[in-house]
Amino acid sequence: MKNLLSINDLSKADALEILDTAVELSRLSENTVRKFPTLRGRTVVNLFFEDSTRTRISFEAAAKRLSADVINFSAKGSSLSKGESLKDTALTLQAMGADAVIIRHSASGAAHQLARQEWMKGSVINAGDGTHEHPTQALLDAFTIRRRLRADSGDLTGLSVGIVGDVLHSRVARSNVLLLQKLGAEVILVAPPTLLPVGVDSWGAQVRYSLDDVLPLVDAVMMLRVQRERMEDLFFPTEREYSRNFGLNLERMNRLKNTAIVMHPGPMNRGLEISADSADSHQSVIVEQVANGVSVRMSVLYLLLGGATARDLNLSSAGGM
Ligand code: CP
User: Fold this and answer.
1) How far is the CA of 74 from the centre of ligand 1 (A)?
2) What distance in Å separates the CA atoms of residue 125 and residue 161, rounded to the nearest whole number?
3) Is residue 175 within 8 Å of 7, Cβ to Cβ?
4) Is ligand 1 within 6 A of the CB of residue 267?
5) Looking at residues 203-223, what average pLDDT do you find?
């Protein structure tokens, strides 16, 4: 595999390979090996046209732990403000010898365009394109669910995951629905009708409108950020009403199974889709999601650029790599 543009690029076996390799990288990082020489001499470019904290920093940390050189490009302060196109930006990065470009863009399909036009010879990784997909977020979410509920092994068959809130504007929701179902989990989407995309019935997930009814059924509940910056119209009457019907709070959390986990991709609107005490509760794995993002992104870079497998990693680490 050269690129990671969509969860649809991955077979179930590919996804499990990424998760297994991430487990191995996480284990080695916790023990003795903090830095691997695998990508020494390779150049990874973070090409971010939209703001990011978690994704950009964790891709940078992941690439550096694999010994790659990292170039951070952000739209602010670049020649984009002078009207430079995506094509000319890509050709410039290619001329600088980029082996991989990690792209975040407000336009759905931007990562596909970069890969399809072959402006880049290296790998293209989608770090979020518009409202379309965010595949590495879904992979780190699946890693977190597996680690917490499946002891790091196997698929997610038999588990039920609720994805709650602004599905309409969420690339995280789409990638998660695709991946969680591929791995055998049942997905229940919970949202007001105005925040569900046209055609959601074809996603294969259940669609429900009552969070209170769904909470007792799920093993993990993933709260989505209300993406005010993508909302030109009014999608719900007031924030207070949204929070009352679709926000997670401690009282609602009593409806969850004791073993259920609370997730959020971040950044959070505390007090809107999730209360501060729910986000900080003992059932919350939100901080773990961020930490797991580094291992999962290391795995993606390792497999795309290093051409290795989890088994190679085991053998190599035993020999000191
Ligand atoms: N979850 C996520 O993509 O966060 P950032 O926007 O901070 O990268």
Assistant:
1) 15
2) 26
3) yes
4) yes
5) 98
pLDDT category at 81 given cuts 50, 70, 90 is low
- pLDDT cut 70: percent of the chain above it: 95
The dotted CATH code for 135-288 is 3.40.50.1370
- Residue with the bigger pLDDT between 215 and 237: it is 215
- Per-residue pLDDT, averaged over 143-161, amounts to 97
* C-alpha–C-alpha distance, residues 311 and 38, integer Å: 14
Q: Answer whether 278's CB lies under 8 Å from 253's CB.
A: yes
On whether the CB atoms of residues 222 and 175 are closer than 8 A, the answer is no
> H helices of 122-249, where?
135-149, 171-182, 211-214, 239-246
Which uninterrupted H or E stretch holds 220? strand 220-223
Give residue for tokens 């035993």. Answer: 318
Please tell me the class of the 7-134+293-320 domain.
alpha beta
In the chain, ranges of CATH 3.40.50.1370 domains: 7-134+293-320, 135-288
**303 C-alpha to center of ligand 1: Å?**
22
Predicted confidence (pLDDT) per residue in 11-48, tens digit: 999 999 999 999 999 999 887 778 999 999 999 999 99
- Cα–Cα distance for residue pair 224/231, rounded to 1 Å: 15
Q: Give residue 314's pLDDT.
A: 54
Residue 52 CB less than 6 A away from ligand 1: yes
